[in-house]
Amino acid sequence: MARIPARARNRKIVQPAPPFICSKISCGEVRRGAKPLRRPPQGARPGKSRKIVQARRARLRYAGGIMLNLALFATTVLIWGTTWIAIAFQLGPVPVLVAVFHRFALAALLMLSGLWLMGRLTALPLRQHRFVILQGICLFSMNFICFYNATRFIPSGLVSVIFSLATIYNAVNARLIFGDRIRPRALLATALGAAGLVCLFAPELTGHAVNADALKGIGLAALGTLFFSFGNMVSRRNSAAGIPPLTANAWGMGYGALILLAIIAATGTPLMAPQGGRYLWALIYLSVAGSIIGFTTYLMLVQRMGTGRAAYATVCFPVIALMASALWEGFVWAPLALVGLGLTLAGNAVMFLPARRAPVQPASASSA
Questions:
Q1: 351, 345 Cβ separation under 8 angstroms
Q2: 341 vs 74, 165, 193, 335, CA distance in Å?
Q3: I need a surface site. Which of 17, 73, 341, 367 has the fewest CB within 10 A?
Q4: Cβ–Cβ contacts within 10 Å for residue 130, how many?
């Protein structure tokens, strides 16, 4: 037997690399320290397995997007559905203008300082500030002046019912401003939701006498909802311009507080300090949860889903308000109220069920 030289015995034998590993590695060479690659299944092509992995990742991203939308929707409905009671707690000896100013001044202070401490407070170009100011007028000042004053004339449940018409306002305004098509599904969902709310608040709607005060309250609630819808359109424009919702909210609340302060000074309204523990707790909840968290999640919904589908959350607010009323105000769930709840949930399902895709028509022989 021939003897193997010592140099040959100590030399590492390098196995030739399979041809499917990588075109950058020449045949017969393997990079030192490279991880071994897994051999594809027998009969499978590398391109096909790569497409399978990409399809799985796409399905996971799609499912994650749906879960995030549902979480944002549920958070918005839960928070804004309970702000009606907090608004009622805030009404009292403090004037409405001052109460709304307290709410958004505290919210703007907390949000601007928090973003600055986290290093996420970005400066906006000068040309963008006019649209953020417009967002502050529509979402963080004028609409709540209308809602707070409307609650002085009509029951808060009726104000909530009128506010739920934001879906119709948004559909019409998106058509007029952005040219969006009004889908039949949105009309059906709005009709079901509105019918459910009428059933939910039938005792208040039928038992409340129509007088001058009632007409003032209805008009103020409708005007506040119109301001809210215009704010949705401005927020959609700001998101399309690349302004993050947190940044737009922070600056918008600051501008809204300054606008409210200017109105207080112009009208000679006394600037009173917060009074009472109940008022303070309502102020903190409305500023932190109702304004910072609620508006941020809602505007994220507008950015991800569009104004029409996001605004359907406003139809569900009175349902949460009724649950809170049953806990703190002794509301009784009558059979008509249960019917209304079922109609509202049915409208919710119509709005969020996936659209049915049209079947793909096979190519005809003449077109081949």
A1: no
A2: 16, 16, 9, 10
A3: 367
A4: 9
pTM to 2 decimals?
0.71
Residue with the bigger pLDDT between 200 and 178: it is 178
Most confident of 36-50, 159-173, 279-293: 279-293
**pLDDT beyond 80 at 227:** yes
**Smallest Cα–Cα separation from 251: which of 104, 48, 32, 90?**
104
Q: Is residue 356's pLDDT more than 90?
A: no
Nearest CA-CA partner of 228 in 320, 292, 136, 300 = 136
> At 188, is the pLDDT very low, low, confident or very high (cuts 50, 70, 90)?
confident
Q: Is the pLDDT of residue 100 over 90?
A: yes
* Exposed/middle/buried for residue 237 (C-beta within 10 Å: 0-12, 13-18, 19+): middle
Query: Average pLDDT in the 165-186 region?
Result: 85
Distance CA 175, CA 171 (A): 6
pLDDT score for 363:
45
* Closest to 302 in 3D by CA, of 246, 228, 236: 236
Amino acid, single-letter form, for residue 311:
A
**Cα–Cα–Cα angle for 14, 17, 19, nearest 5°?**
160
Contacts of 89 (CB under 8 A, 6+ apart): 278, 279, 281, 282
Domain extent listing, the chain: 65-181+212-317
